[in-house]
Amino acid sequence: MCAYQPDAELLLPLLRAPEATAILLDVDGTLAPIVKDARDASVPVPVKTALVKLTRKFALVACVSGRQAEDARRVVGAGGLTYIGGHGSELLRPGESEASVDETLAPWTEPVHEAASEAIRELSGLGIRREDKGAVSALHWRGTPDESASQRALESIAVRAEDNGLVAHWGRKVLEIRPPAPFDKGLGVRKLLTGSGIRNALYIGDDRTDLDAFNALMELNLSGELDGIARVAVESPESPKDLLAAADLLVTGTEGVQALIEDLLGEEA
Ligand SMILES: [Mg+2]
């Protein structure tokens, strides 16, 4: 099966007005292939090159990641892009050295980190890896010696976090402990696009958190702030079914994403 089947009708409004179009891309599982240890993730060089070309054609190219914005920029390694990090809680524009962080989340950073420290202390034999992402702490069980035992153990950690007023969020073989304040990729996208003059937006993502961004595009479209929208889901054996169901277009794996980017570039690829 081909990784990417073009949908000319869907992309036409975006390609017709690139000066008013935003291309928004998730990072892990979308631009960077999923790897056992998230710290080892990287974006293939041809994709980096294509991303830089996208910034020359379209009004705005932004990566939207659960990683901290500066970490997302390190992984993607392409200049001229905007980064929304920490699930919509941070914004890093091209040329800026530091991301601006949503100040309402700051008081929750310590309780979140403490909950993650406690989990790592208690579950030390299972090989679960901790990743701090600003306001969020992630506990990864991909590749642990007994993945189902790790997942079961994390279920009780999730319950305790919720009992302590924090939010437990499940992703692809990862439990995230989050502050109880509203922030997600959808709010980040909404904040970025509102008042920007952007009239069309395409979003590509592979996980449940990307559904918030899909919904934001739909709401901005319904309220008349966006004319053309394209919600693209990356299919993999772990894709959440609700993400696939909400998508306008499916591509297969990071190869499919690369093919779509090349299609967006057209003759400039
Ligand atoms: Mg992803």
Structure description:
- This protein is of the alpha/beta class and 269 residues long.
- The protein folds into 2 domains: 8-102 and 183-268, HAD superfamily/HAD-like (Rossmann fold); 104-178, Alpha-Beta Plaits, CATH 3.30.70.
- The chain is 38% helix and 21% strand.
- The protein contains 9 helices and 12 strands.
- An 8-stranded mixed sheet has the order 5-4-3-2-1-10-11-12, with helices on both faces. A 4-stranded antiparallel sheet has the order 6-7-9-8, with helices on one face.
- Helix 6 packs parallel to helix 7.
- The radius of gyration is 18 Å and the shape is globular.
- It starts with 7 loop residues before the first helix and ends with a helix.
- The structure holds magnesium ion.
- Residues 26, 28-30, 205-207 line the site of magnesium ion.
List keywords for this structure.
269 residues; alpha/beta; Alpha-Beta Plaits; 2 domains; 8-stranded mixed β-sheet; 38% helix; binds magnesium ion
Summarize the entry for a quick read.
With 269 residues, the chain is of the alpha/beta class. It has helices at 8-16, 45-57, 69-76, 109-122, 147-163, 185-193, 210-222, 241-246, 253-265; strands at 21-25, 60-64, 82-85, 90-92, 100-101, 129-133, 136-140, 167-171, 174-178, 200-205, 228-235, 249-252. It folds into 2 domains: 8-102 and 183-268, Rossmann fold; 104-178, Alpha-Beta Plaits (2-Layer Sandwich).
